[in-house]
Each structure stands twice: as C-alpha cells, then as structure tokens.
C-alpha cells in the first residue's frame, strides 16, 4: 500500500496573477517549432545516435519542414562535435534552416561549442543553467547572485565569440533550466541580466526558453508562469518566448498548448515525445492538434508511417500503438457501436465528399496523414453488424442489406466467441461465402435456363440445376422471372418457399461489371435462409441467390 504522501510531497503553490488572460485566448496560428530530437531526445537514449542515425533523422526533420533544429551538445562527445562539422562541411543545411547547439555555462565547453560551429551560415547558440532553489542549494551550492554571475559571464563570452565570427548569422538562446520551479521574480532577474549582455535586436535575435525541465504542477500553473513572465519581462517585444515542456505528469501537451495561449511564440520538443524520463513534449501531436482545429501547423506529417519508421529506427524505441495520430491502432474501431457510427459517417461523406470532416470517433481523416481506411474497422467479439459489413463492402464491394448484416453478424459473433480471436479480412470473406452459398462449386448451381413471357403477363420459366454431379430439370410459372423460379422450385422440391426480401446492385461502375443479388426466403416451418448470388448477368445473379438460399435451407435440414 502507498504510504501517506502528505509531508513528503508538497502541493505546488499557485501563481499570483491578477486577471489572467490566457483562459480566454484561442490558438489561431502555429508557433515556431524547434526539434530537439538530435540533442534532448538523443541524450535520453541508451545508445545515443551515431552519425548515420543522426543524418537519417536530420533528413527526416527537413522533410517534415522544421526550420530550427537543435542538432547536438557539441562539447559532450566527439560524435556530437563531428556531426555538427559534417552538416556544415558537407553543406547539408538549407539556407532557411538554422541549427542550434546547447552548452553549459562553462568557459571551456563554450569554446569547444564555437569550434564546432565554424563556418555555419545560421546558428543558435543555446546557453543554459539551472536556477531553481534545490539546484542552487544542492547542485551548484551557489547563491542567487553567483548563479546570475555564472550566466552573465557565459553570456559575455558567447557574445564575444559571436562577434569574432561575423560570417555566421547568430541567434542567442538562454534557458533558465528548471524555470517551472524557480521563483518567478528570480527567473525574470536572471533573464534580464543575460538580455542586458546580449542586447537583443533584429540583427541579433534572442530566444528566452522557459522550460518545464521536470513537470511539477498542473498545466494551468505553467500557463500562469508564462503569462506572468511575458507581462513582466522588460524586453518582451525584442525577444522570442519559447517553451520546452517535459512530460513527467503526462501533461506535456497541455502545458505547451496553455503556454501558447499564455504568450509563448515557440515550442521545443521531440517527435512522438522522446526525451529524458517521460520525454519532451510531442511535436507531432501538438502540430496535428492544431491541424484538427483548422490551423495550418507549418509541419508536414502527411507520410506518417514513414516518419514513424525512421524515428523508431533512429531512437531504437517503438512508437506506442495508441500514440495520438501516429499509433497503428489509433484509427481502428473494434467495438460495435463505434464501427456502426464510423460506417455511417463514411457513407454520409461519400454523398458529400467536400464537406467539413465529421466522422464519428475519428478526429482526423486518416488519409490526411497518408493512412488508408483499411484498418479503420477490425472485427473481434466486441464488434457488431457494421464491422463485418464494412469489411465486406470495403474489400469486395458488397453493400449488405440491413437484415443480412444482422444475420451475418450473428455468425461472426459465434466464431469470435468460440475462438476469442480477431477475424481477418480473409476469414470474414470465407465465412460469408460459406454462409450464403458462394461456394465453388455451388451446392445447387444454375445451368441453362429460359423464360418466356406471355401476352397475359404470365411468364414460363424452365431451368436445369446441377446438384452434386446430378442434373435436375424444373419448370414453373409466375408474373416475373423470380416468381416463375419460385413456383418451379416449390414443385420440384415440394416446399412452400417464398421470397421475403430481395436486393441487388452492381459491384462496380463499369458496364461490364458484375451484379450481386441478396435473397431471403422463408419456408413452411418459419425457417428463413439467405442466399447471395454474383454474376455478370443480373438475372442469373438473382436466380443463383435464390438457389443458394434454398441450398442453405436444405443443408440446415440435412436434406442436401
Ligand atoms: C535539462 C537538460 O537537458 S540539460 C542538458 C543535459 N545534457 C547533458 O548533460 C548531455 C551532455 N553532457 C555531457 O556530456 C557532460 O555532462 C559534459 C561533457 C557537458 C560535462 O561533463 P563533466 O565535466 O564531467 O561534468 P558533469 O557532467 O559531471 O557536470 C556537472 C558539473 O557541471 C556543473 N553544471 C551543470 N550544469 C551546468 C551549467 N548549465 N552551467 C555550468 N555548470 C553546470 C555542475 O554544477 C557540476 O559541477 P561540479 O562538478 O563542480 O560539481
Ligand atoms: C537545456 C534545457 C532547455 C532543457 O533541456 C530542459 O530544461 O529540459
Ligand atoms: Mg529538456
């Protein structure tokens, strides 16, 4: 049993913020995005990426449209240093893309970082040091003044080194690491001090990145912290406010979204939320959350499967099957009522394809991210009539009448209850064929037939049936082809057969396409049986459907 938490853990105090604005704001445009997959994501991997994996990831980030990419912590390892050199020397950085690198506020590390960036066209130099009380006390063992001094000295060195490399277009970035549990006034003070050194202006832009290094509060508190910071920072108009949420409480996405409402211009994160511990905020989800609100995200995830494949290969970590938008199960409904609603949603959409996306249970059109509709519905014991009917329609073009859907659903349920397994598309089709007579050879197959229409409106029907290698001739009369055939069968089999339900449609648009007929017959003992017939001739399809219904009845009575 969990021990009582009170005393060991304390609630995070609220922010004193009068007339907070962010709850009334809405998101109407995408932020600036920075991918830190190659730095923060990379530092969280058991086996950090080698240059091959880093390059693969880099290419993917460019393909997705990222313009700001944190590529390394160059002073951390030779691999990271070499990777930055490789990007620059092999001219792999498009002109409109800025690489970013991270450094601690340590002189030797800063020098090494600049060495890595020699020759870069655009670069963001990202400086960080932790500012929260517990870090000041335990990690740095420094006072507030000393912590400010640490940042200021590093900022001065960075400015100096930037000025010595004027061919690079520099952006400065400062992160008060652990911002979200730093006293807000101290966070402001240290950022003001760094900005005072860097003197941000159009020619030398500055980003202030306010990380939730470890999530410690509910997202509304983070939003309050961001709004408070934006309100009180004296150079707000000259700097870009960036956020960098982690996901320790599972609310990284909420923190980022509320922070944007509170004034953040830029978001740092990783694809699918890779990163330290529970990860960085997931940029794919953030971007597609905007997209599904009608806001262009400025990132391209139209080939989601490829993105997942590359990220899994580079990180050597799987993307969860239920990961928002990207997981392999997120567009799949197994349960009956969901399948029914989705099927109706797609049917309505077919009538009016250009309308607003409104398919129940699907917040995003899978096609928008390169997914097919194939996996939208899968069938197991939780499924209802619409699931199996959808699969038959999608894969074979048969639009089953409602009563046949219900009949078939009972058969599917029997199978899934017996085996406890999901039914594949192939097994559903095989069960359907078995159940409604589409066997090869047919149990009762229609041979030659003829019909003769008479002046009195009656029709004479003659046919030859093939049953288990034997031929059987029959004839009858009625006011149409089917009623003539019913009469013939009644006489030949001595059965009071009648048709209760009849539907047919073509299987395709082309004139040579086949037709399908569905027939439900009843017999004297109140027994009913469905039969389905498919043929390029609609009359043959109907007659064969009738024979298949008969054959099904005879088989259940063990008469065939
Ligand atoms: C929240 C984040 O993601 S921050 C980024 C974290 N990422 C990484 O650390 C990955 C790359 N890091 C590394 O490879 C190594 O840490 C290196 C190469 C940078 C430094 O390694 P080392 O010199 O062995 O130092 P170490 O990693 O132990 O760092 C701790 C020391 O740095 C100090 N330090 C930590 N962060 C900072 C900082 N931002 N600025 C200045 N000093 C810092 C600590 O106080 C400690 O000092 P101490 O040894 O005097 O007690
Ligand atoms: C370096 C900083 C921005 C960081 O990664 C964090 O605080 O999580
Ligand atoms: Mg981080």
TrEMBL record:
Where is this protein found?
Cytoplasm
- Which controlled-vocabulary keywords does the entry list? Amino-acid biosynthesis, Branched-chain amino acid biosynthesis, Cytoplasm, Leucine biosynthesis, Magnesium, Metal-binding, Transferase
Q: Which Pfam families match?
A: HMGL-like, IPMS_D2, LeuA_dimer
Q: Which InterPro entries match?
A: 2-isopropylmalate_synth_dimer, AIPM/Hcit_synth_CS, Aldolase_TIM, IPM_Synthase, LeuA-like_post-cat, LeuA_allosteric_dom_sf, LeuA_N_DRE-TIM, PYR_CT
Q: Which domain of life is it from?
A: Bacteria
Tell me the Gene3D superfamilies matching this sequence. Answer: 3.30.160.270, Aldolase class I (3.20.20.70)
Example GO CC term: the record gives: cytoplasm
Q: What is its main location?
A: cytoplasm
Q: Which PROSITE patterns match?
A: AIPM_HOMOCIT_SYNTH_1 (PS00815), AIPM_HOMOCIT_SYNTH_2 (PS00816), PYR_CT (PS50991)
Instruction: Describe, as the record does, how this protein assembles with itself and its partners.
Output: Homodimer.
Tell me, in a sentence or two, what this protein's role is.
Answer: Catalyzes the condensation of the acetyl group of acetyl-CoA with 3-methyl-2-oxobutanoate (2-ketoisovalerate) to form 3-carboxy-3-hydroxy-4-methylpentanoate (2-isopropylmalate).
The entry assigns this protein to a family as follows:
Belongs to the alpha-IPM synthase/homocitrate synthase family. LeuA type 2 subfamily.
Which protein, by its recorded name, is this? 2-isopropylmalate synthase
Which source organism?
Winslowiella iniecta
- Gene that produces this protein: leuA
